[in-house]
Amino acid sequence: MSARAPLPVNVICGYLGAGKTTLLNRLLTESKERIIVMVNDFGDIAVDAALVSARSADTIQLSNGCICCSMAGGMFDAFERALSLREAADRLVIEASGVAEPARLTAFARAEPDLDCRSVVVVVDPFTLGQRLQDDRIGGVVRRQIEGADVAYLSRSDRKPDEQSRKARARVMLTNPSSAIHYSMGKAFLNAMDAPHVDMTVSTLPGDAHADLFSRATVLQDDAPEREGFLDRLRAAALSLHRAKGFVRFASEDAPSLVQLAGGEITVCKPPNDPGPGPAVRLVLIGTDDAALRRFQSEHVTSDPQPARSGTI
Amino acid sequence: MPTTVYSARRIITMDPTRPVATHVAVSVDGTILGVGTPNDMSHWTDTVRDDRFADKVLMPGFVEGHAHLMEGSIWEYTYLGHFGRIAPDGHHWPGVGTTEALISRLQECASVAPDGPVVGWGFDPLFVPGERLTRQHLDQVSQERPVIVFHSNMHLITANSVAMDLAGYGCGTDLPGVIRNTDGSLHGELHEMGAMFPVMRRIGTSFRQLTGGRDAIWNFARSACRTGVTTSTDLLNELGDDAVDELRSVTGEEGFPLRLVPMLSAMSMPTAQLTDRAKVLAARSTDRLRLGGVKIVTDGSIQGFTAQMKTPGYYRGTAQGIWNIAPDALRTMATYLNRAGIQMHIHVNGDAASLAAIEALEAALSEQYLPDHRHTLQHCQMADQAQLRRAAALGCCVNFFANHLYYFGDKHHDITMGPERANRMNPCRSALDLGLPLAIHSDAPVTPLGPLFTAWCAVNRLTDSGRRLGAAERITLDEALHAITLGAAFTLKLDGEVGSIEVGKRADFAVLEDDPYEMGGEALKDVGVWGTVSGGRAIEAGSF
Ligand SMILES: [Zn+2]
Ligand SMILES: [Zn+2]
C-alpha cells in the first residue's frame, strides 16, 4: 500500500512481572530509532504508559474489541493505526499482555506486506519461571510464549548469573532450544532483536484435525556432530518434518551455525546473533510423524530432559 | 395532560402482588400510574382510552442482558448462515444449505451493488455438505471484485482469488493462518485476524465499522422492537468520548424505542483509570442510555476452542484455550473495581475461567464487602455445582447463554464438551435452586436476538437436531419469563425501573400476539410479537 519499506516489528511477550516494561523503557532510552509502542498490558496494572509515551514516537493502546474472544477487533485497529504512522517511525514494538500468545501477534506482522516481522522476545523472570510453568492455569501460555520466541531475555540477571538464572536458562533451552538467550541489553541483544522472526507454527484446515497430529521435539546434544553426517540425517528426516530450527556447532568448527528446515529445504548459515553458550546441538523439530521425530531424536545423544539436571549446562 | 389507559386481552405483570391485569394507565412522560381492572382506572379523570391492544397480551418489555450493537451493523453484509434469520428491516433470510445456494445469493447481492467488495457473513462450513467452500467457489461470484465470506465465529474468512491477490497471497505463500491445499495452492480460507488483516484492510472492511454508527444503533433498535426488547446491553464497548456523544445523541432522537446499557471494556485503559472513567460515564447516563458498568473478558468461546477448560479439557482435540487477562491480573482488577463500588460483568465461558472469576471476586469481596454488588458471571456455561455454590455464597448473579443449547448443543455434545458436560451446560435449574439471580441471553449477533426464543431454550433445552440436553436443568415457563424480564433487569440494577409492570416504573412493554401461558413452554418460541411500548409510546415492529 505504500512505497516505503515495510515497518519492522518486534513483539515482546512474557508473563506478568517478568520485566517487559523495564526492558521496553530501556530500549526506548538506548535506541536511536523512532519507535511506535503498542501496549496491551492494561490488565496488568504495572505499566507506566506515561513513561512509555514520553519516550516513543507514539503509543497505541492495543485494547480488546472482539465479541467472542475479545482480542481480535482491538488488534485490528491497533495495527491499522501503526501503519498509518509509518512515515513517522522506524520500528513498531509491541508489548504484549502477560497472557498474550505471541503467535497471534506475529501472524499480523508476518502476513501484512507493509510490516516486517523481526525477533519475538520473551522476557523471563528466572526466579518465578519454574513455578509459572507448573501452574495449571497459565503454565501452557508461559510455555507457548517461550516456544514462540526467537530471543529469550532473562531479566534481573545483569549481575553475575546465579543458580536461579542457570536453572531458568536450562528450562528455556529445553522448551525452545532454538532461541538465543540473553542476560543483558547490550549490542548483541539489540542485534538479535533486528533479526527476522522464524516461525515454528503450523496452519491446517479445521476439521482435518491435523493440528492435533503435529508434534514437537527438542534435540539437545553436548557433543559436536560431523557436519555431513548430521545434515544427511536431517535430510533423511526432512520429508516427515514440517519445520526445524536451531543452532548446531559442527565438529571442528568454532562458531555455531543456524540450521533451518522449511518446505523440505535445509539451510545452514551464520546465525544473525550469538546464541550464547550451550549444547552443540540445540534444535526444535515439528512434524506429523511422531515416530520419525523420535527416531531423529534418538540418533542424537540427547541431554537428560529434566531441567534440574540441565542446570549444569 | 391526558393519561393513556391501555387495555389488553391480558397483562402479565411479573409483579407477584398482582400477576395479571387487563388495563394499565400511563402518564404522558411514560410512567406507569395504575395497573388493574377497568374499575381501577376510574381514579384518573383526564384520560385517553387506547384499545389498540385489546386483543393482544402485554408483558414487561424484555431485557437482553448480553448482546452487542454489532447485531445492528453486521447486516451491511449478506447473511449466509445455516439458520434462517430476520434482518432489522424485517426481511427473512432463509438459511443457506448448499455451496450453490451460497454462490447464487452472493451473485445476487453483487448484482445489486455495481462495484466494490462483496461480503457475506454467518457462514458455517459444518452445516454445508460436500466440499468445504473454496476460493474457486467464490471466483464464481466475481473474478473482478474481491469477495469474502466471514464464518459465523468471525475468526475465519474464505476469500476469492482477487481478494487473495490484493494481499499478495499466492502459490508460494507459507504463512500461519493462510490455508493451502496439498499441492501448495491457496485454499481460500484465512484463519484468525493476522491472516485476515491484509485482505480486509485492502478492501476497506474493518471491525471498527461494525461497532458503532447511527445506522447500526437504529438497526439494533429495530431488531429489539421486533423481538419485544425494550432494554438491551451493548456488552463490550470502549466508550471513548466520541462514542458516548454519538450514543447519547442517537438514543436521544425522537422516537428511539430502546434503553441501551453499554458496558465499558475493562481492557480499554489501565485498571487504575477504569474506576474514574466508569464514574464519569455513569454521570453521563440519560433515560435511554445507562452507563457505568464494566465488562471484563477472561477467556474465549467454547465453539472456537478458546474457552479455558479445567481437566479433562476439550472432549475432542487438544486445544488449550486462551486468556484475555491473567488470573492474577483479574484478581487485582476485581479488587480495584469492587473497592470503588463498580459493578462488573465478567465473561467466563470455560470452567477454568469461571473458577478464576469466582476466586477473583472472593478475594475482592473479602478485602471489601460491597452490599448488593450484583457482580455478574456472563455466559458461565460450564460452571459445575461447586462453582455455582461458591457464586451463590458470594451473592453473584449469573447470565447464562441459553441459546447455545440450541445453536451449538449438538456440536458441544459430539465434539467440544462430550455428552456429560454438554448436558450440564447453562444449568438454569441448579442456579435457581441455589438462589442465584438468573438471566439468560442471546449474545446477539453470535445468535439471533429474541428473548422468547432464549426462554424457550431454557425451558426445553433442545438442540438443533432435537436432542434434549440435561432435562433436569430445565426451568418452568414462569421462571424463564422472569429471567428475560426482572431477572435480566436485576443484573443491570434496573429492576427498580423496568422488568415488571408496576406503578411508578417505566411504561416499557412487549406487545405479544399470543399469550405465552396459552401457548405453553414448548411453543414459546412461536409466540408472535407485535412490537413494543417504550416509555409509554407504542411502536409497531417494522414501522420505523
Ligand atoms: Zn472472538
Ligand atoms: Zn458477548
From TrEMBL, chain A:
It comes from the Bacteria. Gene3D superfamilies: P-loop containing nucleotide triphosphate hydrolases. InterPro entries: CobW-like_C (IPR011629), CobW/HypB/UreG_nucleotide-bd (IPR003495), P-loop_NTPase (IPR027417), Zinc-reg_GTPase_activator (IPR051316). Pfam families: cobW (PF02492), CobW_C (PF07683). Residues 220-289 form the CobW C-terminal domain. Residues 8-177 form the CobW/HypB/UreG nucleotide-binding domain. CDD domains: CobW-like. Zinc chaperone that directly transfers zinc cofactor to target proteins, thereby activating them. Zinc is transferred from the CXCC motif in the GTPase domain to the zinc binding site in target proteins in a process requiring GTP hydrolysis. This is GTP-binding protein. The lineage of its organism: Bacteria, Pseudomonadati, Pseudomonadota, Alphaproteobacteria, Rhodobacterales.
From TrEMBL, chain B:
It holds the Pfam family Amidohydro_3. SUPFAM superfamilies: Composite domain of metallo-dependent hydrolases (SSF51338), Metallo-dependent hydrolases (SSF51556). Residues 55-537 form the Amidohydrolase domain. CDD domains: YtcJ_like. InterPro entries: Amidohydro_3, Metal-dep_hydrolase_composite, Metal_Hydrolase, YtcJ-like. This is Amidohydrolase. It comes from Leisingera daeponensis. The lineage of its organism: Bacteria, Pseudomonadati, Pseudomonadota, Alphaproteobacteria, Rhodobacterales.
